[in-house]
């Protein structure tokens, strides 16, 4: 009898101390658990960013946030400019959204999806003269890290001009980890 009481007490204690076994935890919804929320995980990291000529342009810390639902980017350019973006898969619209803001007062929101292994996002922005520009961002996982391209079109997408091309490599201070 003592043995059964001890076993029952041990099982009760285990259930109380194991968060994965409680009824309350089992009732919690699994937010952001579908595979779509993992599509941009290749971008998460601590990156040194170079232009296509190999010149250092800045540093980009890209982290998972808000229970893994959001990817937050924190940019610091070598000339002192800064910016940040929030990226989330919008399950209701079945697409990705990025909202970017910068120390230059720049705001951009754009949407899109995976095309092969590339994440392609497109949005509109008004230039200083009130003209509509299309912005397109493309993130591609590579053997060395990530290739990031930001292009602008002023003719409705017929032609594109590169505004920024980044070669993201794991930051030297974190590469040893």
Walk me through what this model shows.
- The chain has two domains: 1-30; 36-170, Lipocalin (Beta Barrel).
- The chain starts with a helix and ends in a 7-residue tail after the last strand.
- It has two helices and ten strands; from the N terminus they run ααββββββββββ.
- Helix content is 12%, strand content 50%.
- The model is unreliable at 4-22 (pLDDT under 50).
- It has 177 residues and is mainly β.
- The protein has a ten-stranded antiparallel barrel with strand order 1-2-3-4-5-6-7-8-9-10.
Uncertain runs are 4-22
How many separate structural domains? 2
CATH architectural type of the largest domain: Beta Barrel
Distance N terminus to C terminus?
53 Å
């Amino acid at each position: 009898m003592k043995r059964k009481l001890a076993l029952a007490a041990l099982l009760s204690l285990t259930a109380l101390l194991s968060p994965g076994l409680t009824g309350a935890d089992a009732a919690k919804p699994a937010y952001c658990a579908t595979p779509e929320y993992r599509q941009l995980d290749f971008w998460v990291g601590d990156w040194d960013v170079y232009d296509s000529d190999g010149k250092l342009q800045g540093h980009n810390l890209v982290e998972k946030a808000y229970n893994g639902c959001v990817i937050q980017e924190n940019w610091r350019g070598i000339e002192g400019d800064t910016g940040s973006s929030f990226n989330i898969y919008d399950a209701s619209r079945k697409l990705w959204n990025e909202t970017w803001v910068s120390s230059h007062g720049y705001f951009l929101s754009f949407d899109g999806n995976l095309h092969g292994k590339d994440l392609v996002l497109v949005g509109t922005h008004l230039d200083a003269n009130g003209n509509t520009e299309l912005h397109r961002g493309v993130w591609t996982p590579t053997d060395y890290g990530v290739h990031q391209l930001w292009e602008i079109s002023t003719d409705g997408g017929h032609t594109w001009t590169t505004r920024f091309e980044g070669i993201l490599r794991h930051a030297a201070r974190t590469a040893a980890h």
